Task: inverse folding
């Protein structure tokens, strides 16, 4: 069984990327010969996704214009958050309301490449095997940026949060709309959903083997840009 729908979070302000993001939305920042949004879209397309929802806010017209010009051969819908940012959870929930089946949600801040294709397949297989929301995690040792404190721990495939956490959320997850059933808020973080699932023992994870490049600050962007990474 293949997941045919995906969602990309592209509504952030990119404040830690200033001054670049004064005139360029963070998802359109170029690394190598592709921008961050393009990398996320291509990962989903290569997986067989046929419909993508993208939320937008900061410099939204640039993102919409980029998508229009690329003429991707799949359905792309825009979830506008022009009036108010809905945070990560609210953004995903709003953009995927029409999705009746499991979907992939992806944060373009990570430097996605074809190397992640097999891991996305493995994550999908894990989802359908256990029928639980699942996240792709990276050990802190694999992170280019060594400032990450860690988000989660992984015990026999089940995600937990402890005082000391060894794994970072890569920005790739598989969900369905049922995870939002207990939420009445419009604006909320995915952390609220994850904490509820963790308490219930129903959030699972898969370990990535890739070097983890995450564009979270101007300093890290400059360092990664100087690596001359080849796709």
Result:
């Amino acid at each position: 069984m293949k997941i045919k729908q995906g969602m990309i979070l592209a509504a952030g302000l990119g404040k830690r990327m200033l001054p670049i993001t004064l005139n360029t939305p963070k998802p359109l920042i170029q690394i190598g010969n592709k921008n961050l949004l393009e990398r996320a879209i291509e990962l989903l397309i290569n997986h067989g996704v046929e419909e993508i929802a993208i939320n937008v806010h900061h410099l939204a017209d640039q993102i919409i214009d980029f998508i229009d010009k690329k003429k991707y051969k799949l359905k792309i819908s825009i979830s506008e958050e022009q009036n108010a940012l809905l945070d990560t959870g609210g953004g995903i929930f709003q953009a995927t309301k029409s999705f009746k089946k499991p979907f992939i949600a992806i944060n373009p801040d990570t430097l996605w490449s074809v190397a992640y294709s097999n891991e996305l397949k493995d994550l999908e297989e894990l989802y359908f095997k256990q029928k639980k929301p699942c996240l792709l995690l990276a050990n802190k040792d694999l992170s280019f940026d060594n400032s990450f404190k860690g988000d989660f721990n992984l015990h026999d495939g089940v995600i937990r949060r402890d005082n000391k956490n060894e794994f970072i959320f890569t920005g790739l997850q598989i969900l369905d709309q049922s995870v939002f059933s207990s939420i009445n808020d419009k604006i909320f973080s995915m952390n609220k959903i994850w904490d509820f699932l963790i308490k219930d023992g129903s959030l699972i994870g898969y370990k990535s083997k890739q070097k983890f490049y995450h564009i979270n600050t101007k300093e890290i962007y400059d360092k990664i840009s100087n690596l001359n990474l080849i796709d």
